[in-house]
Specification:
The protein is α/β, with parallel strands linked by helices and about 325 residues long. The protein folds into two domains: about 110 residues, no CATH class; about 190 residues, Vaccinia Virus protein VP39 (Rossmann fold, 3-Layer(aba) Sandwich). It contains ten helices and 13 strands. The strands form three sheets. Strands 4-3-2-5-6-13-12 form a seven-stranded mixed β-sheet, sandwiched between helices. Strands 1-11-8-7 form a four-stranded mixed β-sheet. It has a two-stranded antiparallel ribbon with strand order 9-10. The longest helix is centred in the first third of the chain and has 18 residues. The radius of gyration is 20 Å and the shape is globular. About 40% of the residues are buried.
Length: about 325
């Protein structure tokens, strides 16, 4: 079996994460290969998964108000675009006020992104789409470079950078601050940032969203092991792991793990090191932090941004927050 050199970062991260003597872990970004992205889209339509449904309802009701105070022509940049389904509410609103829209979806899953872009291009000829297969910050830089190289005058339009799906919750709190700071460095005073925050609520509402009865979240989580076997030559036996997700009340976050149901030895092709995984031990794969409005305020202030407007659903389960550079 030959391993592609492009997987060097993946190998390095996995070696580091599995070597942690306190808590084995894998960065959550590796959940999103082509199949992982497909499975996540299935998760978002499950009855237990309230975040997508709730965020979509806010966009459906408030798209006009979100955009009404932006006088310039709008260019959309979306980080972690996925299927772009929710973004279509903004498409419709923007195209009522300008003849065409330039849209840059950024996603690390190239094949999934390519199929989404192809579908969007056939649906509306007034949307000019350029898919950016990259991580978030480098993707924004790529967008800015494309605009510059095509002689766009930056003082004639406003970029709206959107970050839906409560994906900000996947970062540790300090990481979220640093991430928003990095986004801020790639914005000018005419730009806006629209971020979705899942709010703290009762545990009985939160936990089922990450343990759907149809089992898509379990498949999504276990697919990470399949990817590691395929791309890194690991020897994980998927029959010996179960999906495990719970709400950590002390940290206001969902934690997603893969729990071993037996004592195991794991190897990575090309490395002599053996990783011992005990029965009941877990590999931590993702966090999803839940925010209060006070926590949102503190995060925004520490990131060099200011809140322009907050939009919420009737249950106050979710906030869409429109931000501007200070």
């Amino acid at each position: 079996m030959h391993l592609d050199d492009n997987n060097e970062e993946f190998r390095t991260d996995i070696l580091k994460g599995l070597s942690n003597p306190i808590q084995k872990s894998v960065p959550s970004k590796y959940l999103y290969d082509n199949r992982g992205s497909y499975l996540f889209e299935q998760i978002t339509v499950q009855p237990e998964y309230y975040p997508t449904r709730t965020e979509n309802s806010i966009l459906e009701e408030y798209s006009d108000k979100i955009l009404q105070n932006i006088p310039k022509e709008i260019i959309l940049i979306e980080m972690g675009s996925g299927s772009s389904k929710k973004t279509k509410h903004l498409f419709d609103t923007i195209l009522k006020r300008q003849d065409k829209l330039y849209y840059f979806p950024i996603d690390i899953s190239f094949n999934f992104l390519d199929s989404v872009v192809t579908d969007l291009e056939t649906q509306n000829e007034n949307i000019m789409i350029k898919g950016i297969p990259n991580d978030y910050i480098n993707g924004i830089k790529d967008c800015n470079n494309i605009l510059f190289e095509n002689n766009f005058k930056f003082d004639s339009f406003s970029r709206i950078i959107i970050f839906f799906g409560s994906s900000i919750g996947n970062f540790e709190i300090d990481e979220a601050r640093d991430f928003l700071k990095a986004v801020r460095l790639n914005m000018n005073d005419k730009d806006y940032l629209l971020v979705g925050f899942d709010l703290i609520k009762d545990q009985f509402l939160i936990e089922p969203a990450y343990n759907d009865k149809a089992g898509y979240t379990a498949q999504f989580n276990l697919n990470l092991l399949t990817r590691m076997n395929r791309e890194l030559g690991c020897n994980f036996d998927l029959r010996e792991y179960v999906h495990y997700a719970f709400f950590n009340k002390e940290k206001d976050r969902i934690e997603m793990h893969l729990k071993s149901i037996s004592d195991q030895e794991v190897r990575i092709l090309g490395y002599d090191k053996i990783f011992h995984i005990s029965r009941g031990e877990t590999i931590h794969t993702e966090n999803s932090y839940k925010y209060s409005e006070d926590k949102i305020q503190r995060l925004v202030i520490r990131s060099g941004l200011s809140i322009e407007k907050i939009f919420s659903d009737n249950n106050n389960w979710f906030n869409l927050v429109l931000l501007k550079p200070c």
